[in-house]
């Protein structure tokens, strides 16, 4: 699950899913990566390229 809010990360974890926190969205310009990490995101990325790399490293994207 890719999430941009701590509550979304918590919900993903409660549903048994791992989540990647994303702080690169224009609608969340002041997003704090630590909040997503503290909520339980397995990784936090700040750009689309970093997200794609994260997913590729886990065999989740081609």
Automatic annotation (TrEMBL):
Family annotation (InterPro entries): HAD-like_sf, HAD_sf
Record's protein name: Hydrolase
Native organism: Thalassospira profundimaris
């Amino acid at each position: 699950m890719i999430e941009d809010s701590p509550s979304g990360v918590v919900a993903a974890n409660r549903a048994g899913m791992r989540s990647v926190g994303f702080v690169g969205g224009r609608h969340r310009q002041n997003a704090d990566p630590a909040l997503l990490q503290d909520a339980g995101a397995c990784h936090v990325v700040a750009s689309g390229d970093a997200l794609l790399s994260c997913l590729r490293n886990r065999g989740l994207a081609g």
